[in-house]
Amino acid sequence: MIRFEDVSVTYDGAAEPAVRGVDFEVPEGELVLLVGPSGVGKSTVLGAVSGLVPHFTGGTLRGRVTVAGRDTRTHKPRELADVVGTVGQDPLSHFVTDTVEDELAYGMESLGIAPDVMRRRVEETLDLLGLAGLRDRPIATLSGGQQQRVAIGSVLTPHPRALVLDEPTSALDPAAAEEVLAVLQRLVHDLGTTVLMAEHRLERVVQYADRVALLPAPGAPPVLGTPAEMMAVSPVYPPVVDLGRLAGWSPLPLTVRDARRRSGPLRETLAAHTPSHQGPAPKGRGEPRAQPHPTRTPRRTDAPELSPAPTPSLLRRLVRRTRPVPDAPSLSAHPAVVDALSIEHGRVRALHHLTLTVTPGETIALMGRNGAGKSTLLSALVGLLEPAAGSVRVGGAVPHRTAPADLVRRVGLVPQEPRDLLYADTVAAECAAADRDAGAGPGTCRALVSGLLPGIADDTHPRDLSEGQRLTLALAVVLTARPPLVLLDEPTRGLDYAAKSRLVATLRTLAADGHAIVLATHDVELAAELADRVVILADGEIVADGPTHEVVVGSPSFAPQVTKILAPQKWLTTTQVRRALRRAAP
Amino acid sequence: MPSRVHPLAWWFWALGLATAASRTTNPLLLALLIAVAGYVVATHRTDAPWARSYTAFVKLGLAVLLIRLAFAVVLGSPIPGTHTLLTLPEVPLPDWARGIRLGGRVTAEGFLFALYDGLRLAALLICVGAANALANPARLLKSLPGALYEAGVAVVVAMTFAPHLVADVRRLRAARRLRGRPDRGVRGLLHVGLPVLEGALERSVALAAAMDSRGYGRTAEVPAPVRRTTAALTLGGLLGVCAGTYGVLTAAGSTYGLPVLLAGVAAALTGLRLGGRRSPRTRYRPEVWGVRAWLVAGSGMAVAVLLILSAAYDPAALHPTVVPLTAPALPLWPAAAILLGLLPTFVVPAPGPLFEEPS
Questions:
Q1: B158-171 pLDDT tens trace
Q2: Alpha-carbon distance A353 to A342, whole Å?
Q3: Each residue of B309-350: pLDDT tens digit?
Q4: Which of A92, A97, A110 lies nearest to residue B215, judging by beta carbons?
Q5: Of the four listed, A170, A232, A503, A527, which is most buried by Cβ atoms within 10 Å?
Q6: Is the torsion defined by CA of A507, A511, A512, A515 positive or negative?
Q7: Residue B118: pLDDT band by 50, 70, 90 thresholds?
């Protein structure tokens, strides 16, 4: 169906090809998953199928890509529209019209399909994707999962023979991702649609793939095989595979069910041990807390030598608050106290009577579906929103009444799109501006950047950094003012596993140095890895608040894979299991 | 969707009401018109974003009314009056500004006249707002002839882009605060200009890629003779239109002007129609002009015609005098005619709640 014959793509101005030696075939009716670390050219391979590479992006394509027998060299994307449907990561940039029904019909209108056929197909697609109740809705009012389903539906109506999806679930919460994956599953199994898909969140998708095409490194040719074979050698893998590799299971399990069936002996071995629930760095935190607890005294019982995080010592020296600025809030206070906070967006109540206290050095994961109020809470903590009732105190100050220059020394937020924080043309200029904004000594930010991201040249444009590097740069900018409270909104969106583990190491170091960290995230694996405490929000209210291992274990949607495999034992991450096994058999 | 009426029908209805409003200054009739338009909007608009514009139009109408009154109070009114409401201190103006007055006596007559006049303007605006709320502008553009299709797409894309731009500006201004810079004031706004433009540009490129890969701009093979005929007809038609217009406007060409103009228009239209053959696109669920559309459009038009007629028949009832001061009476027949504008509430079923199935 889709055939690559020794394809290499070189973009204009690039010395090296973005991908080379791509030579494989996706047979009809298969779901092939394209995996690999960030920046290996997954999007380029996908773009070559729809003809957008090179017709739209420019560059040189060598070799041959054929889709249903049509050569993409001689066919422009619009002439392939009836055989390939393409959906990107951001469905909003895909929509041409404003209501669901019109969007489904748009592609067919362009292809000149007869009106009665169009009508029938729209109805069929509405049913197939479970969108019938939404047909007249303006697209802007839909949730993320619904929008992604509409985007898929809009390319399905012309009945393409192949579907190309670039990270369809990366931006979605677990439930919305399930919605989208269920639809894909149905398309492949009931309709025999051929699907080629790239996705970072392997734990969500790898079990659905018939085959996996692995792009191991930039410029390396892809390797094709069954998911289990590929996961055994892949540099990116989900936690279930990590556990399987650790336990030496063969073939590797890809689903929680497979892993659970084989995990009997492992569970017996582990039964003698208790997971070190104080998180990866034992800090004596994580006991259940009652809310509110104003009398709780902050603990600084960190034992840095126990921290397993590979700590860049330079970073630690830089971030540690050895010399408190006279007017900076002292560490003894709670970095943030939220009391009975309510916030309204227009008539919608975004947060309702929410109470939360953040103690120094603790890492809190805010979880909950899209629209539950996670970002609203973070915005309130940095004073972007004014409380309708209740109060917020950050380092003793009321955030929305505090001058920005003063506030940055109490709290820092890395927004969902880290690029929003970056204005300058070069990393060096960005760092100089950050020093000025924060009133820090010249070179403070640059030293942080070098600590977090070794090997970034001064004259690099922030736009040319990878997703993970940009996030780290934004984090460094925020840390320049040394805020005791660091907030991150969806930090792992678009990060591969390597970038994620670097982020985890960085954040652990910060926590060990007494920074309180609050992350809003959909990523259950990240929360399990990093957080001492999980707060689950629903409809603007706290529905669960407690130590990570207690909150996530009982929840089907928030439990990490390792927990599901080893239940009823309370293990959260492969790291914990690995440490326990090492202790067991020295 | 049974409740869908051709968007043009709603526009005809609303413009009919607006025409009626322009024919009278009777505050009771105007209030009745506003009430009729408001009632139909309240029962028939959906929760869609464009439907929310009605409130904006109502506010605009109110603002116009208030401005009209403020002018009448401050600048005085040409209406002679004897009932003084209040006397403002008058600003003495130099000789060259003779005829202009600032401050001074405010009479009940002048005030009332301004009120009636302002009310008429407000009613006009509210009628246009009603059309906006009831007819999806995107659907209206879709019922344009095929040659104008591209323009319709551009407008729809622009309409979805504007909210994105506003959201971007807000987000980036917030980000300035996170950097410890002031997030208010003009400088803050200027500073985010470039990133906002950058974001908009990136979005446009992404949208263009999406449209391209969904078949936008596909062309069909057209035989060469048809292509040539199209070109000839379009060019000839445009020349004809130019020559015809010249003829109509100059005294000498009054004999040949009109026929040439008409022939030119016909040729150009045929050219456009033939040109549409190059595009293979079809239309999904084109709007149907059915019985309901006739009734909706007809009711609006009937209101307009009846008020025009009664304005000719009994102008006094439609324009109550302010000198001498009299309480306006409600003329029976024109009021009944305006109530015809309620016909859509009976013939068009109300739309169901848009958010019936939250999932």
A1: 776 777 788 888 88
A2: 5
A3: 998 888 888 888 887 888 888 889 999 999 999 999 888 887
A4: A110
A5: A527
A6: positive
A7: very high
Write b or e for each residue in A121-153: b if 16 or more Cβ atoms lie within 10 A of its Cβ, otherwise e. Answer: bbeebbebbbbeebebbbbebbbbbbbbbbbbb
As a whole number of angstroms, the longest Cα–Cα distance in chain A is: 75
Side-chain half-sphere CA neighbours of A236 within 13 A: 27
Query: Angle at the Cα of A307 (from A366 to A474), degrees rounded to 5?
Result: 50
What single DSSP character describes residue B353?
A: P
A residues 417-436 lying closer than 8 A (beta carbon) to B: 417, 420-421, 423, 433-434
Residue A428's closest CA among A458, A456, A472?
A458
Q: What pLDDT, on a 0 to 100 scale, did the predictor assign at position A318?
A: 56
- pLDDT value at A462 more than 80: yes
Task: Give the single-character DSSP code of A372.
Answer: S
Burial of B346 (0-12, 13-18, 19+ CB in 10 A): exposed
Residues 272-301 of B with CB under 8 A from A: 280-286
Rounded to whole angstroms, what are the CA distances from B214 to A47, A84, A87, B354? 13, 9, 10, 28
Q: Is the pLDDT at A402 greater than 80, yes or no? A: yes
Task: Please count the helices (runs of H) and the strands (runs of E) in chain B.
Answer: 13, 2
Closest CA relative to residue B181, chosen from A402, A423, A403: A403
pLDDT digits (tens, 9 = 90+) for A222-262: 999 999 999 999 988 999 999 999 999 988 999 999 999 99
For residue A81, the tally of other CB atoms under 10 A from its CB is 27
Picking from A88, A111, A481, the nearest residue to B215 by CB comes out as: A111
| Interatomic CA distance for residues A344 and A379, integer angstroms | 12
Chain A environment of B207 (Cβ under 8 Å): 93-94, 96
CA dist., res. A437 & res. A405, Å (int): 7
Q: Taking CB atoms and an 8 Å limit, are A437 and B180 in contact across chains? A: yes
In this predicted structure, what is the pLDDT of residue B177?
Answer: 83
CB atoms B214 and A106 under 8 Å: yes
Q: In Å, how far is A118's CA from the nearest CA of chain B?
A: 7
Residue A304 DSSP one-character state? G
What pLDDT does A308 receive? 43
pTM confidence score: 0.76
- Residue A214 contacts by C-beta under 8 Å, 6 or more apart in sequence? A35, A36, A222, A223, A224, A225, A230, A233, A234
CA–centroid distance for A362 within its chain: 21
pLDDT digits (tens, 9 = 90+) for A62-71: 999 999 999 9
Residue A413 dihedral angles phi and psi, to the nearest 5°: -125, 130
Facing B213 at nearest CB: one of A52, A108, A382: A52
Kindly state whether B201 is in contact with chain A, defined as any CB-CB distance less than 8 angstroms.
no
Residues 6+ apart with CB under 8 A from B79: B107, B109, B110, B113, B322, B323
Q: Report the distance separating Cα A519 and Cα A195, nearest Å.
A: 34
Query: Is A244 in CB contact (< 8 Å) with chain B?
Result: no
Which residue's entry shows tokens 């007249």?
Answer: A136
The residue count for chain B: 359
Q: What integer best gives the mean pLDDT of chain A?
A: 85
| CA A548 – CA A530 distance, rounded (Å) | 9
Q: For residue A130, what are the β-bridge partners?
A: none
Could you state, in order of their start, the residue ranges of all structural domains in chain B?
Answer: 7-219+285-347, 224-278
Buried b / exposed e over A528-555, threshold 16 CB at 10 Å, is: bbbbbbbbbbeebbbebbbbbbbbbbee
> Cβ B175–A93 below 8 Å, yes or no?
no
**Mean predicted confidence (pLDDT) in A145-149:** 87
Name the closest residue on chain A to residue B206, using Cα atoms: A93
Task: Report yes or no: B149 and A97 within 8 Å, Cβ to Cβ.
Answer: no
* Chain B 4-63, residues with CB within 8 Å of chain A CB atoms: 46-49
